[in-house]
Amino acid sequence: MSKHASRHGPFVYKEVAGVKYKVDLALPDETKFGLVAGLSQAIMRQASGKPSKGDEDHSLPLLVYFHGGGLLVGSRTAWFPHWLLTDALDAGFAFISVDYTLLVPTDGHALIADVKDLFAWIVSDLNQHIAESSGSSQLVNTNRIVACGSSAGGYLAYLAEPFMRKDGVLLPLLTSNAPFLDLINTPASSPPVVETTLDATKDPRHAFLLWLLQTGEFTDYLTGVKGLGAELAKLDKKDRGAALPAAAKALYPTVMADASFPPTFFLHGAEDALVPPGESQNVAATLERLGVPHEIVIVPGADHAFDLLPGFDPSVAKGLVPFLLKHSVVA
Fold it and tell me: Which residues share a beta bridge with 102?
């Protein structure tokens, strides 16, 4: 990452029941990307007698990053992929890392509201915050936004899809929900939760995620429909999408995908013990059938969240940022 890249924030994009939802912003090297860099390059071309490139847009594409944690734990600063930040800034992206609502006491519909509110804030307020906080001449092009996420954050990236349109797992066996009763019985009227400690010994949410996956109740907590996971489990996989209640369909954007789905890059560990690579492969097959641009990289020998583990080689993801830059949306 260039030494001239800069970090700003946090900025608050919404507030719910006294809980502030924040984003952290990083901007690329202003001497290479943005209005000042563009003007300098134009002057140099003119001085050397080279033809002008005409009216160029020197605003920055934006990469929106959502953290992992099973939708129950984590924060915008935890389990952070520094390699992705470096590659994105070196390619000229502005980069934001985002708070979002964790499940319990709220359900997944709060995530849709978060994404909607976030994108509205990006369009209306982000450039003003850049100008006021950094004095930078750089601006974000709000028509060139890509979404990216690790693990559960990838699901948030799927939920961002409407805002970017051009027009069997082995787990530790838990035998009782007793450790989570306080969490389960949290009143729905309680303030939302947007970050947790990463210490599993201090927060029952970590084990609660495993409990929900083990019992098949994750779908219930995501949709807010009790018993839905058990009902869907009775059906053949190909029939489950059609069986979703109308109010829950927006929580499964890949099930409802059509030809206007945004170009998508998948990076998945071949030995992922939490989310089988077949999940990404199935979505990629759907996008192939729909004619949606996509790339999929299955990393041999890699487990879940492999990019955060010691020894990770960023070269396995060398195609990611070029793909995002190529397909960043222009309205």
Answer: 193
Beta carbons within 8 Å of 81's beta carbon, 6+ residues apart: 65, 150, 307, 308
Q: Are 72 and 221 in contact (CB under 8 A)?
A: no
Helix (H) or strand (E) holding 147: strand 140-149
* Token reading at 50: 């080279």
Query: What type of residue sits at position 51?
Result: P
Tally of CB atoms within 10 A around 49 = 6
Give how far Cα 107 sits from Cα of 182, 219, 220, 225, 297, Å.
17, 10, 9, 9, 31
Q: pTM here?
A: 0.76
Residue 227 and residue 212: Cα distance in Å, rounded? 12
Q: What is the pLDDT of residues 289-329, one digit of tens each?
A: 999 999 999 999 999 999 998 999 999 999 999 999 898 85
Q: Give the pLDDT confidence of 213-234 residue by residue, as tens digits.
A: 878 899 999 999 999 999 998 9
